[in-house]
Each structure stands twice: as structure tokens, then as C-alpha cells.
Amino acid sequence: MGEKYVLMVVPSDFPQGDAGAVRDFSFAEIYKMLGYRTILIGKGKTDREGRYKQVQYYSVYRPADTKKEKLFRYVKTIYEYKRLIEKVMEDHGPPSVIHMNALPGLTADRLISIAVKYHISILHDSTEWYSPSEFPHGVFDKAYILRNRFNTKVIRKPIRVIGISEYLTTYYQRRGLMAVRIPAIMDVMSAGQSVSAQSDDIIRFIYAGSPGKKDYINEIVKGFIYAGKIRKKFELHMLGIDSVKLKEITSLEKIPEYIITYGRVPRTEVEKVMQEMDFSVLLRPENERYAKAGFPTKVAEAMAHGVAMVCNLSSDLDKYLSDGKNSIIVKECDYQLLGQALLRISDMRRDEIEQVKHNARVTAEQYFDYRKWTSEVRKCLLTERKE
Q: Which of 61, 122, 175, 300 is deepest in the core (most CB within 10 A)?
């Protein structure tokens, strides 16, 4: 009792299950640098509670197999968040800071009331805003409606906002909320760097992600087929997608031998494969709201490993990527333009590729390492409350 701590209430698969968990742990490390310990309530799928590198964590996650279980899971999740928040406060007293991400509205309301009651700072880490195109029912989809309401109504004073993109940060500033921008962050200094097999002539690419609607997987594969008809120097390693799903997405009867699918794999496997790659490829429609509001974590993760990006410029990527220096930029989200970019790469000498990769790692150290953003979090905590 009495020790300064940050209560993080988040929806990530903490401690190591997804990209959100990487970001959450980075914030926990920042809070440690600022003199706080962290207690986290998340949706970890492995343990109901535990400790990960000094972060005590609890999980509200419960599996739901049947339609009936899934129907009631949302309500059970709200109850579990409430129960665990009360447990933490009973055991440790009121927190010094509350840090949250996208949550059920009732849970967010409860955290706001605690912040007001105890006169403590409450921060919201805003990382995405859906587009109707991502859902089967568009603007009428429940998930879309809930997130839209969360961003426009639930997030309100006295909350201060950490926006992952300029789009989100500007939106909340215009609503009169204190907001700072912090892009995708992680422990870059601990990330193992790519070591290419320079004994052969193959240039290796990786796509790591789930086959949702965010990324243009069909365009990526078509781009490699387009380039592959001219040059036979490429391998595309696709993690998170199996061959059956890839055939469904692309309508291909046979997947070219230079496109290797892995299916779903743990993050540790992604990191292992990443260290054998030269480039990471990503195409994402820059005009969709989800692309403007979010920030592709896979860009920061690839560059942290010394793997350069081949991508178009969505979100805030133009702030960090320079064509030919630390990345190869595709002008538009188009398979032929991607194919042309791949042919550009195939004309590069190995030492030129290694220089681009080195520059990518340097950029990650400058902008995506969590240690670089401590002052922005401090600014959120020290800004005088006027609410």
C-alpha cells in the first residue's frame, strides 16, 4: 500500500500475444523510468494472472466456443474488468495514474469516475479507428458502432490522449483534449538484427499478419507474380496465412514455389524468421480511415530487426521512410507498382541492400524505441489539470 503505481486496463493479449501487448509493455517500461511500477489488467490468453518482467498482470479473457457463450462474453468481460479493478485497488490502494486502451464503454466510464474521485491522471492510448469497409455490415456492424461511439463519446475530459497517429492526435486536440502523438514503440535495442545469407542470390521478403481486410494481400501476391515472371530472385515468406486461405484470397489454383506460407505462428517464430529477411512488404489503402488513424506496428517491428520496408505511404509513414535510403516506396497501393519496386530491388547490389537495411535499423532506434518517448508521457502526467 502507498507505493506509486500505474493501473493499465487494456484489451491486449499480454504479455506477448499480440502487437498491442508489445506496445503496452513499452509503456510499462516508460512508467518504470518515471518512477512508477505497473499493474496491468488485460486479455492474456495464457494465464489468468502472473508477472512479466516486473509487471504484475491479470486477465479477463475467457474462451467462448458456442454462439451463446460469445453472446454473453461481452457482459462477462465488463464484469471481470470491474472485479479485477476493485481487487487491485483493495490490495494496493488507488493508483497514481490510470492508463487505458479501447475498452467497453462501461469500463471506461468506471475508470474515469475513479480518476475524478481520487484526482489522478487518466491516459487513453488511442491506436485505431475502424472504417466501415472492414466489416460485413459496414456502418451497421456492432463492432464498428461501438468503436465509433468509444472514440467520439466515451473518450472525454479529464482523459488525456496518446495518439498513435497524427490523425487521431489532431482529432482529440480539436475536441479540446490534451493529446500527444507517440507512434508504434517497442524495445528496439533488444531486437535481434537481420543477418542475411549472402552466399546466395535470393532476396527474402516477409509479410506477417492476419488475413483480414486491412492489408491488400491479393495485391502483394500479384506484385510478386508480376515481378517473378521477369526475375527469379525472390522469396516471399507469409506468416499468419496458410496456403488454403491464400488461395481463397487470391483465387490462385497453385501458389508459386517462391511464396512460402507458414499459417498462424507464435510471435517468437515471427521474430526468428524476421532475422533471416531482407525486406518486409506492406500495401494498405492510404485513404481509408483505419489506415490514417492507425500506425502499422509491423513497420516498426521490421525496421527494429534491420529489415527494410517495401510499402506505400499510409498513416504517418512519410515522417520516417525515405525512398532508397531506409525503404523502397511503392507510389500507390497497386500490384504493378509493387512489381516495379521489386524489380528495382533486384537490380541492387547486396551491399546496397545491406545499407538500406542498416539505415532502417538506425531509423527504428531514433523513432520507435520506447526510451525516446519518455518526455511525451511525462508531459501527459505533468500537464496541470484544468478540468
A: 300
| 166 alpha carbon, distance to own chain's centre | 15
Closest CA to 128 of 297, 262, 269: 297
**Contact present, 131 and 148 (Cβ < 8 Å):** no
Distance (Å, rounded) from C-alpha 252 to C-alpha 245?
A: 10
- Residues 276-330 pLDDT 10s: 999 999 998 888 888 889 899 999 999 999 999 999 998 899 999 999 999 999 9
In sequence order, which ranges of 266-311 are alpha helices (DSSP H)? 267-274, 289-293, 297-304
Query: Does a cis peptide bond (omega within 30 degrees of 0) precede residue 158?
Result: yes
Give, in order, the Cα–Cα distances in Å from 281 to each of 131, 275, 364. 22, 15, 16
**Which residue stretches of 93-242 are H helix?**
105-118, 142-149, 166-174, 217-228
Predicted local confidence at residue 387, as pLDDT? 44
Distance (Å, whole) CA 383 – CA 287:
33
Helix (H, G, I), strand (E, B) or coil at 120: coil
Q: What is the dihedral of CA 211, 212, 216, 222, to 10 degrees?
A: 30
**By three-state DSSP, how is residue 5 classified?**
strand
